[in-house]
Amino acid sequence: MRKKSRRSEAEQGKEGVRTMNIRILHGIQGAAQAQGLCVVIDVFRAFSLECYLVQQGAAEIDPVGSLERAFQLKREHPQAVLIGERGGARVEGCDYGNSPSSFRGADLTGKTVIHTTSAGTQGIANAMHAKEILTGALVNAAAVAEYVRASGAAEVSLISMGLAGLEPTAEDDLCAEYIRSRILGQPLAGMPEKIADLARTDGAKFFDPQKQSIFPQADFEMCTQLDLFPFVLRVHPKNDYYRTERINLCKQ
After folding, report:
1. 83 pairs with which residues across the strands?
2. With contact defined as beta carbons under 8 Å apart, do 46 and 244 qualify?
């Protein structure tokens, strides 16, 4: 009697995905409830920005929940770049706000970046029950999905941070749905059209002439470049704050 052949890695991978419990949660409250492998999503703009910072040579990024801790870290490490945002605007005393376009052409080689925002970094700070934390955005969504698929995690929490971690937003919900669809091997159709629609919903602020000093149009364009980066940013606890690690993946 002929022996049954061993299942291929692809078949085993599909079975692993089928057994994943993938939940989409929202905001700070959702982060506090998240379990297993957690992806904290902030498209406009925190985790899009962090991808660009890493691509431009930043050696370390330390996402921090509170402004007080961020300023303390800056005092301890005066050569670090301090990015601080509340209500979309740069916090007084910080080197930069949360704008990707403000870093265009900047050489960040070897730099440490301290990063505190009103949504994205709050999700990290509140994901207290996570076994592993990734950040997520449209610019690296396919890479995030590939990492999650390969992880074999039983519990996956996709945390759509939304506005200030309190209200859902279209861009973060879209990113969560897209990542989930990629994990399941059923990519969401019509992504170019769905991304274009963001300019008329929660991305409209980037096209308001009165808000260009805080929400420049170039930020919208940079944050909606789908699957631009083939890497993920994994977050590790470090003392009483966190540090990100870039993990390169193969082809998306």
Report:
1. 96, 115
2. no
Residue 31 is given by DSSP the state: H
Handedness of CA 93, 119, 142, 144 (dihedral sign): positive
Answer whether 0.90 is exceeded by the pTM: yes
Closest CA to 161 of 69, 44, 23, 35: 44
7, part of any domain? no
Residue with more model confidence, 60 or 15 = 60
Looking at the predicted structure, is the pLDDT value of residue 2 above 60? Answer: no
Count how many domains the chain has. 1
Query: Cα 197 to the chain's mean position, in Å?
Result: 20
Tokens of 146: 């590939």
**Residue 156, SS3 per DSSP:** strand
* CATH number of 144's domain: 3.90.1560.10
Instruction: Collect all residues with Cβ–Cβ distance below 8 Å to 146 and sequence separation of at least 6.
Output: 182, 249, 252
pLDDT of residue 251: 54
**pLDDT for the residue 4:** 45
pLDDT of amino acid 114: 98
Listing DSSP states for 169-226 in one string gives -HHHHHHHHHHHHHHTT-PPTTHHHHHHHGGGTTTGGGG-GGGTTTS-HHHHHHHT-T
Domain assignment present for 54: yes
Q: Which of 144, 157, 90 is nearest to 117 (CA)?
A: 90
